[in-house]
Design a protein that fits this description.
Layout (H helix, E strand, L loop, with lengths): L7 E7 L3 E6 L11 E8 L3 E6 L3 E6 L5 E2 L7 E2 L12 E6 L7 E5 L3 E5 L9 E3 L9 E6 L4 E7 L3 E6 L13 E2 L9 E8 L4 E8 L11 E6 L13 E2 L9 E9 L3 E3 L20 E2 L6 E3 L4
Parallel strand pairs: 2-6
Antiparallel strand pairs: 1-2, 1-3, 2-7, 4-5, 4-8, 5-11, 9-10, 9-12, 10-15, 13-14, 13-16, 14-19, 17-18, 17-20, 18-22, 21-23
Length: 296
């Protein structure tokens, strides 16, 4: 039970790199807001901001700006976390005593499940030992009943049971998650509940263009189109690239509805029809800068 001065709330990390606190449930149709992370907590509890460098920064929920549940407006992560050059916030996690097992995926295809372990008295700590040049691209709650999902820039999608990855301590470096090509990298990592109606959204374009600019195409498919394969394999093709496209620039896998926004923060309409797993995408008039789920 909450104490008199505690309020149940959700801490949210937006694709714009802002942190915000929302009292109550989030609206399913947020006004142009793509969510990178969402943690159910209370106004007097701490939460963790996970970064691409594999670090967790402790933040107290009461310090976050309060916002309405239909249009999120927060403050930059940099106001609460001291980030190194090139380090970005990629998700939020609980730092309570009963926090769940987390799954991490890196740009080079490494996967790790982290045993719940919050070091006492520390405000910043590492949860994965990264190889030089690698970075974390995704973090998610990953219990034994979930599936872990990778999507790569060379248009491969791989999902396999989380139970196939043995949980490790904070100092460990993880294991091989997906086999990728020499010039490829992971653009998405996450975990899904296999009982949900999950979709895979992929955005193709040219590696020479900046994220959220230039021509691109998007494809929405049912995750069930893609057969599960073993950990450390190459997955299956998830989008056919056409003239002018040489890579997937971004992707998101999880339950609908999926939200997309432009570089200016405006909502982008995604195709409603679900395509076959190896189909090409639909050309867009507006480029997509960010993809994300509905939050919790």
């Amino acid at each position: 039970p909450l104490e008199d001065d505690q309020v149940e709330c959700r801490a949210v990390l937006t694709a714009r790199g802002e942190l915000v606190r929302v009292d109550g449930a989030l609206k399913q149709e947020l006004s142009g807001s793509v969510i990178r992370g969402c943690v159910l907590t209370n106004s007097r509890s701490d939460l963790g901001v996970v970064t691409s460098a594999g670090r967790v920064h402790r933040v107290n929920a009461v310090e976050l700006p309060n916002s309405t549940p239909d249009k999120l407006s927060g403050a930059p992560v940099s106001e609460y976390c001291t980030l190194e050059k090139g380090e970005t916030a990629i998700g939020l996690v609980s730092v309570s005593d009963d926090q769940p097992i987390l799954g991490l995926g890196t740009a080079n295809g490494v996967v790790k499940r982290v045993t719940p372990d919050v070091p006492a008295g520390k405000n910043v700590w590492e949860i994965i030992n990264l190889n030089a040049g690698d970075e974390v691209v995704g973090v998610a709650v990953a219990d034994d009943e979930s599936d872990l999902v990778f999507v790569t820039s060379d248009a491969s999608l791989l999902h396999f049971p989380a139970a196939k990855v043995r949980p490790q301590g904070r100092a460990a470096g993880g294991v091989a998650g997906i086999k990728i090509g020499a010039d490829a990298h992971v653009v998405f990592f996450g975990a899904v509940n296999t009982n949900d109606d999950n979709v895979a959204v992929t955005v193709a374009g040219s590696l020479g263009q900046l994220r959220g600019t230039g021509a691109s195409s998007v494809k929405v498919s049912a995750l069930g189109e893609f057969p599960a394969k073993g950990r450390a394999t190459g997955g299956v093709r998830c989008q056919r690239l056409v003239k002018g496209e040489d890579a997937l620039l971004q992707a998101w896998v999880g339950p609908a509805p999926v939200h997309a926004e432009s570089s200016g923060g405006r909502a982008v309409q995604l195709p409603e029809e679900r395509a076959k797993r190896d189909a090409s995408g639909n050309k867009l008039k507006t480029s997509i800068a960010a993809l994300g789920g509905p939050g919790q």
